[in-house]
Structure to design on (906 residues):
């Protein structure tokens, strides 16, 4: 066996209230694609941040190519030959590709030389990229290429990729994979973080599995089934969560021919979206990120008002209502971005609980004064019910890990007993235990649901708050990409999506070819949940 | 080499330690300035900070402290709401003038009648005048997306022209032998805003300032409006998600700060100033911006900052009289205060670290996270 490129020995890192990494050791061989697997909150992010110099471990050592590796900053890590492509791009929309790349460099060469280099590198690795184009006009996949090329210009020895495929179409995934293989042939090692076990089986030759901050297994993903790896991730046999037999009721949320411009500069307008959700069912919204999902959430939450008749809740037109008005009527939302949208980073959990629950939980007293004691009690209940790892409700949201904050945000909405709960990308980022996109995550969600059921022997409205996590899906509406063209396989279930379906393989119905007209459709197959077809 | 390193969370300790530190730095730098001007720095500093309170003329200067601090505190408290929410009302000076004008005009309409109701009515009119003046930038922003900084600032100049017009025209004292300026409101019992306890400087404006500080504290800590203001300032998107309308917030914050500034103007014109005159506005509305930030946009901090700022005003005048320091040097001295505060602010979000040494663990900073 060759000597390891990166040897991690005994890395430990604790945050207030939670140990993110505990005595983590593993090796990455040169010229290999190494998977880092784990449930959300297992400590993957902290570990790669330590390797990339964003986090300083409490204990442990790292060795990169025989030399001690203890970067104090990402710059030092880059100098040592470590590059990282984040899940979230740090690009300026208004600047060109070359300008964006120059901005990230210590000593950028003249723009003309840099453009030539960008062209060269992007062609070598099969990532076509025009250095003169404005980033705002690029698709998510192209933006990722900018980030990758930016990394490749440094000739890294180790490239870290954090959930790279969540924003890509299947074709773009194929391109990315061939690029990564080329890189491996060129001698670069790649540390690949993903939830998509099938992708890991196809791409990686070694996998390190984290659970609760510890390394629990190392395996060759090509020799293991996705189920086996999932079981290692959760540490137990998977049992398919039983679907509760919930009678499907009346239509509660009806969206009809919803069209609206995006409030954001480079956003995606909604065009003719129609679907209906009945009480007791789960409707999945599929599609590659950035195709109107965010805008749809804004239109449902009330942050974006829409024309009359487009959004109805239990027959009532709520399109002109404010977020508060919709919340009062039982339409609750959990946006994708936790810090800064679903929660305020520098406010305490108590304040964040009060933020959306003030009306449904009656947390204001006469004259508009805040019942902070009640808010604190509610925050504590969220923390206990949803197993949020935190010292207490007076901690700021910023201090929670992504997954923990997600649990808090989703829990906050669920405990308000919604009539309809809209969730955007619940497993995104660090993710949470109620998700995962693979059987592992789903099993967890089943467990959480079970525990909650015992605690709250509810019926009728009372278990409305659990419905979304344990009801069968009835259909899926799939936003189409704006420029037509992209194909999706029905087998490519998005991570967030399957979790919302209680872990069953999704029956994601996708039209074979998007029609040139901008229509959104719901599948025709499931009569009850399906909306209307607008071919 | 010393490098700056971002703290995991803004330090609570430094948030409150920087204002006193900034005052100290101002004293040092100011002392150097005064020394360069050929004055004894220690005497100058003592004249500014010590003599107004405990010096030989303290009996005369001490009441001035409340008289000068009251409008600053009243205006700054109102501004703090907008500033916390990211709504920048720079035109408090104009709202202060308009409050004085409308309040005085309403009062003078009843002259020479005597009634206990006239003064409260004037206070209401003053608040309303400031509120209406602040509504102009507020509604323009809500309706057309204009920048409230520019509009409110420009309206200050409109207001000072209105003041001159009123002092020379409609509000001019008919018995004033043609001199510009209104009747003396101090000498009319119905409108006089005199000291409630002789020798303290405590007039109705100071009472209103104290009430405003307490009310603002309650609003920030316990009221939905205060919560909405804080949330919108920290995270506008989260505020929108929580159902807080940005337009309502702009109107609420601008209206509140305008009304308080207007009230401050009315208390001033009926009390210390005594009449509407061309030189009625002396910049309280602008100084209040410094006071608001010096007080960390926190009501209690503003109370302390307002008193401190008033002290430098009084002490500055004394230094001009007794030591012959130029007025510009005193203004420079006051400006330094804000300058040093802003510079020291770096320490709340960053910490200094000697290169090569490991950073201390953030656990203590994390424990400070409580509201």
């Amino acid at each position: 066996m060759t000597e390891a490129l990166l040897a991690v020995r005994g890395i430990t890192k604790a945050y207030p209230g939670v140990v993110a990494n505990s005595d983590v050791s593993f090796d990455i061989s040169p010229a290999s694609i190494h998977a880092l697997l784990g449930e959300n909150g297992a400590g993957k992010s902290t570990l790669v941040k330590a390797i990339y110099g964003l986090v300083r471990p409490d204990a442990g050592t790292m060795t990169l190519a025989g030399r001690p590796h203890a970067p104090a900053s990402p710059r030092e890590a880059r100098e040592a030959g470590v590059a990282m492509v984040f899940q979230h791009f740090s690009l300026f929309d208004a600047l060109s590709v070359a300008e964006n790349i120059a901005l990230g460099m210590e000593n950028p060469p003249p723009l003309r030389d840099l453009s030539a280099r960008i062209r060269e590198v992007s062609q070598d690795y099969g990532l076509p990229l025009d250095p003169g184009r404005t980033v705002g006009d690029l698709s998510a996949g192209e933006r990722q290429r900018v980030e990758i090329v930016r990394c490749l210009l440094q000739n890294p020895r180790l490239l870290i990729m954090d959930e790279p495929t969540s924003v890509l179409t299947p074709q773009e995934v194929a391109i990315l994979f061939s690029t990564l293989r080329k890189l491996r042939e060129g001698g670069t090692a790649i540390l690949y973080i993903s939830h998509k076990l099938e992708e890991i089986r196809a791409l990686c030759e070694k996998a390190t599995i984290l659970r609760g901050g510890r390394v629990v297994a190392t395996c060759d993903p090509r020799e293991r089934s996705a189920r086996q790896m999932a079981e290692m991730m959760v540490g137990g046999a998977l049992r398919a969560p039983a679907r509760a037999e919930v009678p499907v009721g009346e239509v509660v949320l009806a969206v009809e021919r919803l069209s609206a411009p995006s409030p954001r500069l480079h956003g995606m307008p909604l065009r003719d979206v129609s679907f209906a959700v009945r009480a007791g069912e789960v409707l999945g919204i599929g599609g590659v990120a950035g195709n109107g999902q965010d805008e749809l959430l804004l239109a449902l939450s009330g942050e974006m008002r829409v024309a009359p008749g487009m959004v109805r809740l239990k027959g009532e037109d709520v399109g002109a209502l404010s977020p508060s008005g919709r919340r009062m009527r039982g339409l609750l939302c959990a946006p994708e971005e936790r810090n800064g949208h679903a929660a305020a980073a520098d406010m305490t959990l108590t304040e964040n609980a009060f933020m959306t629950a003030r009306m449904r939980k009656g947390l204001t007293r006469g004259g508009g004064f805040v019942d902070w004691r009640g808010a604190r009690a509610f925050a504590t209940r969220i923390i206990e019910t949803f197993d949020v790892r935190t010292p207490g409700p007076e901690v700021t949201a910023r201090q929670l890990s992504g997954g923990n904050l997600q649990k808090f945000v989703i829990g906050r909405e669920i405990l308000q007993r919604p009539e309809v709960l809209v969730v955007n990308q619940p497993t995104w980022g660090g993710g949470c235990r109620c998700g995962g996109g693979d059987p592992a995550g789903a099993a967890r969600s089943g467990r959480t649901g079970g525990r909650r059921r015992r605690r709250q022997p509810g019926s009728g409205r009372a278990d409305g708050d659990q419905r979304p996590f344990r009801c069968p899906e009835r259909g899926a509406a799939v936003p189409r990409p704006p420029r037509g063209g992209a194909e999706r396989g029905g087998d490519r279930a998005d991570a967030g999506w399957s979790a919302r379906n209680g872990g069953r393989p999704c029956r994601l119905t996708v039209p074979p070819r998007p029609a040139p007209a901008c229509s959104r459709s719901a599948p025709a197959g499931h009569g009850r949940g399906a909306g209307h077809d607008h071919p | 080499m010393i490098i700056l390193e971002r703290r995991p969370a803004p330090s609570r300790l430094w948030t409150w330690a920087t204002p006193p530190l900034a005052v100290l730095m101002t004293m040092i730098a100011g002392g150097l300035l005064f020394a360069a001007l050929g004055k004894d720095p220690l005497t100058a500093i003592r004249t500014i900070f010590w003599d107004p309170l405990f010096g030989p003329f303290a009996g005369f200067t001490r009441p001035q402290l409340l008289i000068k601090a009251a409008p600053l505190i009243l205006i700054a408290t109102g501004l703090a709401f907008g500033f916390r929410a990211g709504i920048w009302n720079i035109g408090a000076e104009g709202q202060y003038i308009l409050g004085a004008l409308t309040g005085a005009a309403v009062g003078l309409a009843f002259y020479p009648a005597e009634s206990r109701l006239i003064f409260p009515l004037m206070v209401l009119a003053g608040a309303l005048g400031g509120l209406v003046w602040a509504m102009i930038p507020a509604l323009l922003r809500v309706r057309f997306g204009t920048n409230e900084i520019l509009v409110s600032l420009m309206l200050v100049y409109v207001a000072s022209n209105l003041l001159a017009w009123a002092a020379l025209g409609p509000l001019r004292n008919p018995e004033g032998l043609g001199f510009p300026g209104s009747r003396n409101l101090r000498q009319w019992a119905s409108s006089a805003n005199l000291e409630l306890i002789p020798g303290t400087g405590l007039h109705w404006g100071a009472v209103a300032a104290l009430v405003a500080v307490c009310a603002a504290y309650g609003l920030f800590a316990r009221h939905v409006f205060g919560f909405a203001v804080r949330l919108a300032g920290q995270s506008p998107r989260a505020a929108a998600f929580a159902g807080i309308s940005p337009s309502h917030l702009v109107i609420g914050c601008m209206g509140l700060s305008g009304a308080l500034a207007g009230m401050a103007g009315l208390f001033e014109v009926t009390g210390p100033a005594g009449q509407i005159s061309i030189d009625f506005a002396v910049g309280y509305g602008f100084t209040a911006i410094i006071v608001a930030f010096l007080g960390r946009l926190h009501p209690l901090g503003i109370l302390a900052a307002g008193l401190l700022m008033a002290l430098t005003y009084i002490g500055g005048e004394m230094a001009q009289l007794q030591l012959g320091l130029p007025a510009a040097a005193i203004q420079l001295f006051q400006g330094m205060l804000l300058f040093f505060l802003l510079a020291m602010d770096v320490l709340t979000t960053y910490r200094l670290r000697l290169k090569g040494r490991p950073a201390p663990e953030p656990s203590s900073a994390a424990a400070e996270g409580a509201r």
